[in-house]
# Entry
Amino acid sequence: VVVADQVGHLEQGLEDGRLAWTVSSTLQCAEVISQLDPEIFCIHDLRSSVMRILDDTLASTDDTLQALCFNFDPETSSRVFEVYLTLGDTTGLADKIQACFAQAVLGSSHGIIRTFAGVKSGKGKGGTQEQQMNSFRNRPYNELCKTLSIDQFRACLLKTFDVLVGVMISHYQMRQWYAEELTKYQGRASGDDGGESEASSAIEVIGVIQKALNDGRKLLFEHIEGRIASLLNAPSAGEGEHFLQVLEWTHCFISCGEAFCENKVTNLRKHIARTCARFFDAYHRQNMEALKAILDKELWHSFPLDEGSIKPLKQVIKSEVGVNTFGALQFEVLASLRDKLFAEGTDPVATFRDLSTKTESRSREGSENEAKEASETSSVYTSSSIKILKCMERYIYLMKVIGENSSKVVEGFCQLFDLYFWHIFQLFGNVDLLYDKSAPQDGSGALTLRLKKTLHRISQSISYTIGQYVDGYPSDDPGQGQGQQNVLSSGNMYGLRERTVALSSLGHIASEILSSSSDLQALVPDALTAQLDSFQNRTVMAVEDLREHLFHRVAKLLVNLVWVPEEIEKCQWAIKDVGMQQHEWVDRLNGQFYQFQLKLDAVGVQGDALKEFWKYAVSAANESILEGFSRVKKCSIEGRAAMSLDLQMFTTGMKRFVPKGFEPDVRIVDGYIKAFYVPESDLLHWAMTHREYKPQAILRLVSCILDANKPSSLNPLEINKRKKRVKELLAEIESSLI
# Structure
């Protein structure tokens, strides 16, 4: 009768959640029943009721333990522990905990993907909707991953990360709780209250559980890795422009995993490296096409940026945020930020970047100082250059992720710069010099050999993107052609402002690459170091050649010099008196340079760029003046003195409005004038050692010198001898100049 009455109390205890008491009481009741005569009426039913309550209690204990895997609670965990302590099962709870956490990972991840992919489940052929739903629910996890769209995939991935991080946090909190319980029971075991036996049993059970929890972290995360790897294998993982965001989220999750395991996560890293390599081609093509679209609409205005919005490449390379954070983040810190990691509406990347940045602050102090020094120089940005620098930052991130298989990423990194380099040349440079073999290849503004080789290489390597002057054929897009004409029109000063901004922004990107040269070399695979070195020493260094070409070109357009050679040639140089007045062309040319400075002031060109424009303008003027002086066929000593006077007055007049600190260099013209006094016997040597002058200008000068040195009275025989000697000298000089 007492046992029969106890059944009701057992059922109430189970209902109240007093699991350990219920288990203990049912075991006592079962022992009492076993001692009764089995022939007594209702003993069998009584035994069945007690055993049913015991089974229900153990099942409830398992359900409670399973719930702890998602949301740990110390009080609830204590009730579960007391049950197994009551049962005297030393290893049972440890095994059950391992199984429950594994089931938590597998079951929750499967449930999440069913929820997100279930939108499509009712579209099967044949059968009732219920049959279709059952068939859908029974499909393997890998197959369900393949059904996700792009939007479904990102939401499913974030939710999976959120739930699985919760599982890891519960596992961590359970380990911490058992460590605290062990300390308590060890205190009881050494006490005098008579509970040594019970404490000893608890210590033994906790020891087994602790070992299982510590050793089981790796196994648990292997289950997690398998689920995430399957999810990342979905076709939608690499589609669209969110590829990089998925990658960043995954690295944030890996940071959690490494902090949880207290060991490096290698399998998942290798998997995402393979995934990146598989999806990079499409991602890079999207970036190149987007950059091309921006370039086609670029206004070439300097884009104002807030300080720190664009990180220096050197700092980006040295930063390990989101890539290699092993040992940098403590799981205790991550557990305290549970709701800010992967919960809906949060930004995981920003959260982890803040956490990682705090841990890196000391080690990164030196690189930040270097970046600060680099940023002290004025930097010019365009919308295109900002796009390139941000893409380069992402590509450096991908190089770190993919590692030794990042050859395509390195090539893509270089192609971003190539496209910008090419577009600036195509828009502002003289494309005829590249493709038209009949165009003059010498003189100021000509393409250097390095620049020409660089442009040829670019046109072949990214022809699918540049699409404008590939193989020498211009684009047929009338809208784009009209826009280019507007930029380069005389009313817009031939794109003076736009050229300056374009070259300054290109120069800034080049300086970023060169300043981080050694760090880039250390980052890329060994097989690509030679290729990267060639890119830096040829293509990037060719920016100075492009700058010289474009500045020469616009300087010659802004200063009208076409008339100079003809005006100089018209002057009378075979004179006997020098006079005190310069020729008219000097004043006219000084007026041109005064207008040139006004144009530069109107655009706002300053600093080094202003001096460079003046340098190339003076160089173009030297070329025109030389051409004019070389056309002079008859000139006296006094005429040469008049030339020197003109050059001096031109230089003096120009100094009135040149930039401060700039000294016009006209030595090449002065040397040409003074060569008039070279003795005839030294003319061959002079011609061979002054290759800075064009061959035609040297031959004309020699002819003029020989004519001026011709004796006034010679007999016919001496005249013929001199003509022969002059002819032989000219032929010898001409052959030496070939």
User: Anything to note?
Assistant: The two ends are 128 Å apart (CA to CA). The CA atoms of residues 18 and 476 lie 83 Å apart. The first helix runs from residue 2 to 16.
